[in-house]
Amino acid sequence: MKTIFIALTAFSLCFFSCKQKEKQMSEETTIVADTTATASEMAEEPMDSVAMQKAWEAYMTPGEAHNRMAAEEGKWTDEMTFWMGPDTPPQKATGTEEIKMIMGGRYQVSNFSGEMMGQPFEGRSTLAYDNATDEYISTWIDNMGTGLSVARGKYNEESKSSTMNGSMIDPMTGKEKQTRQIYTIVDDNTRKMEMFETGADGKENKTMEIIMRRA
Asked: Cα separations (Å) of 189 from 72, 83, 107?
């Protein structure tokens, strides 16, 4: 009896093992089949290289917005009015700015130098117009900080101005605060830039106005 029990047990283990092996082989076959089907589907949908080339050509080609940027090439004199706080009297400063286009007329670079609060002041901005998103993107750095300000916005043909929203770090709190910039084309030889900041109380205050005149 004991011998029969041992034989039946061995048979059961063998049968179970064979079934497990068959199941494993079936699963592996299914995985291979699925992988083959996926590879086949990918092969049936090749990337349209012609459409990709046209899209990149449109993306990299300067347009009307870049022509507006190029029209500002040259030297400008800047008259600045700025406010250190909402209840403080305005302060004045002057400076010069040189604007040029780079990389085949795709980007604008502006270098500013002057004096602010009795100290030498220099700054640099870059301006791009992204054909894909239909918006301006600007960056700003200067020698009175170690951060980088970035802003994005649209151009309004009717008002001849662009409104750009961004952010900057408040060195007093170490926290980010929101900014808004309005850049207006007054005429061929005059530009106006207005800067606003949103304080901790949620109120927006005007912090700077620059009148640019072609030198």
From this structure: 9, 26, 20
92, 185: one domain = yes
Domain extent at residue 24: 2-46
Tokens standing for residue 92: 């004045």
What's the pTM? 0.76
The CB density around residue 170, as the number of other CB atoms within 10 Å, is 13
Furthest-apart CA atoms within the chain: distance in Å: 113
Only one residue has tokens 């590879």, namely 39
Rounded to whole angstroms, the Cα distance separating 171 from 169 reads 6
On whether both 41 and 124 belong to a single domain, the answer is no
Write the secondary structure of 121-133 as one string of H (helix), E (strand) and C (coil): EEEEEEEEEECCC
pLDDT computed for residue 99 by the predictor: 98
Q: How many domains does the chain have?
A: 2
Residues 72 and 153 in one domain: yes
